[in-house]
Every structure is written in structure tokens, then in C-alpha cells.
Amino acid sequence: MTKISSKRIATLRRELASRGLDAQLVTHPPDWYYLTGFTGEAGALVVGKKGCALITDGRFTTQAKDETRGVRIVQHKAGLYASVGEFLKQTGTRRVGFDAGQLTVAQWEGLRKGAGARTVLKPANGVVLGLRTRKDPQELAQMRRAAILASEVVEHAIRLLKPGVRELEVAAEIEYQMRRLGASGPAFETIVAFGERAALPHARPTAKRLRKNELVVLDLGAILGHYCSDITRTIYVGTAPKPVKEWYKAVLEAQTAAIAAVRSGATCGEVDAAARTTLAGYKLDQYFVHSTGHGLGLEVHEDPRVARGQKTRLKPGTVITIEPGVYMPGVGGIRIEDDVAVHENRSEILTRAPRDFMEL
After folding, report:
1. Does residue 105 sit in the same domain as residue 160?
2. Considering its fold, how many domains does the chain have in total?
3. pLDDT (tens digit per residue) in 232-268
4. Do 76 and 55 touch, CB atoms closer than 8 A?
């Protein structure tokens, strides 16, 4: 087991001890990658007081042996969760935590049946995700690289914005450029939205062609070395009318205020409020229809939620997005998003693309 994996598992074991658990069942691929380095998509990891076992099928046993150290690899031949239950029963593991948000009812029933009556299954939700929230220096370095890559791609995509180009064409070029620069792929389905469609926060690319005097929203993220980035820029193709310029100014000020509120010890609700208060000053808060941001890491959406009233306090090592927006049905939308890392005495904007209003 690598030094980093050993440290993470030791931290998890301390958490399990505080909860009175003998083991944790880890069924979410990003969680078991975080703990062991295994990149396969099928299996279950049991982290006990002394050892770790990865139960998987014949497609992944060789891969698991190559990617992990100090982890017992168990090949199952029947159903996965029944086999995991049998493993728990055979090893005498009595009090086992699991993440209820990562198991279906059918999987839980198979697990319970295989484990038998003497094994107590106790919900222990988000235990590993809680550890993942605080990135170590190696993770932060990787996320910085992923953010810089995404910044380069969005700047390249802006140069493609000419009247007549289709949303699908721009999205395809974005994802090609990600891979050309070394990403394993997009962190989510790339958003390219022209004109009225920019008022849809999660618009999927279509065959719509760009016309002059339209807003364009580009929202993209890349996976680099398993870690995600997420960036949004809004551009106007043509000469923007005064209201659009005013909306952009308001959103940029809201994002700037929220970024300024990001510090160790601040609550996520305080960061969200900084953006909303700014937009309210422009009487635009009613057009801000989503949260200010979210955690980022091995997944593009992680804890914490940067949303209204959230009491979670930011800690050094946490990476969040800051992405306020306003959406005007029938006109378009404006969103500006960057990735921000929390340090002990400061914050750091990881994404690097310019945020000034652009008219092409």
C-alpha cells in the first residue's frame, strides 16, 4: 500500500472506531480509488480494523492486483453483494458501516441475506466523501493542472465563435481539445448555449447555429489524472445592448464578492449570501435560480454545497466552484464560474481564463 493510501485508510479507521464500527463497506468507485488506487468500475471494498479486501469479478482481478498494494483481492463468482455478505460472515465482521446513498434496495437486501443475522449493517453515510473534501498538496497540484487545462480549452473555444457555427460543433471541438491536451475526457456533458438557450442553466448542445447579437454560455470541465475542473464563461457575439452589459457587470461583481468571502472557517451559506446580496443590489437576485457553487475533486459535484443557509464551514484543502448567474427567459443567460481552493490563510483561484466582458 502506498504511503498516501495508508494514511487515508488510517484516518478512515479512526473515524470508524469513533462510530463503534468494525469495518466500512465502500461501494462508490471514486471512494475506493481514493483509498486504494483501484480504477475499476465494479466491486466493493471492505476496510476493516486491520486489513482491506476488494471483492470484484474476473474482469478486474489482474487490474486490481496491479493497481493496489496491501489489499486482499477476492474474486466473486455469484452476485457481488451476496458474495460481500458471505465474506463479512466468514471473516466474523460484526458491525459494518455502509453508505445508504450508494446502495440500491436490491443490493442492500443481497448484502443482508449473505451476511446473515449476526452481522449488523449500520448506515455511515459520506464517511469517505468527508475525507475527500480536504485535498492534500498532491491533489491540489493535480486540480491546479486540470483547472489550467480547462482554462486553455475555454479560451480556444471562444475563438471558434463565429456566426453560423453550431453548438454541437463547438462542444465537439472543446472535448477534442481536452483530450489533445492530456485529459481523459470531460468531467460532465459540455454546455454550449447560444441566444435564448443560454437562459437554460444546463442546456445541452444542439444543432442551433450562432447568430450575430447573441449571448453564448460555455460551461466545461476536464478530468486530468482523475481530478475534475469546471469553468464557465459568457461572451456576446456582436455589440451588446446596455442591459446585457449591466447584467454581466452584476454577475461579475457577485462572483468577485463570493470569491472574497471564501476563507477557512467561513460557512458555505455566507459565501452564497455574498453573491445573492450583490445581485439583489441590482434587483437581479430573482433571476439567480441555482446555488453559488459546489465541491470539486474526484467528482465534479462533491460536498460541500455552496448554497443558501448551508452551515458547513470551509476548511483548508477544500476546493469549490463559484458560479453565480442570471437567466432571462426569451433573452439568454450569463454565468461566470471559477474553481477556488481554500488554504489556511488565503484562497486561490485555480482557473485562469480572463473574466472581463467580451464582445466578438
Report:
1. no
2. 2
3. 999 999 999 999 999 999 999 999 999 999 999 999 9
4. yes
In a domain, 356, yes or no: no
What is the distance between the alpha carbons of residues 194 and 175, in angstroms, rounded to a whole number?
Answer: 18
CA distance 275 to 261: 9
User: Both 234 and 340 in a single domain?
Assistant: yes
pLDDT digits (tens, 9 = 90+) for 124-140: 999 999 999 999 999 99
**What is the CATH number for 327?**
3.90.230.10
Q: What is the pTM of this model?
A: 0.95
Taking CA atoms, 315 is separated from 163, 267, 320, in Å, by: 45, 10, 11
Domain containing 81 equals 3-132
Backbone φ/ψ region at 264: left (φ over 0), alpha (ψ -120 to 50), beta: beta
Q: Pairing state of beta strands 185-186 and 191-194? A: unpaired
CA dist., res. 267 & res. 264, Å (int): 9
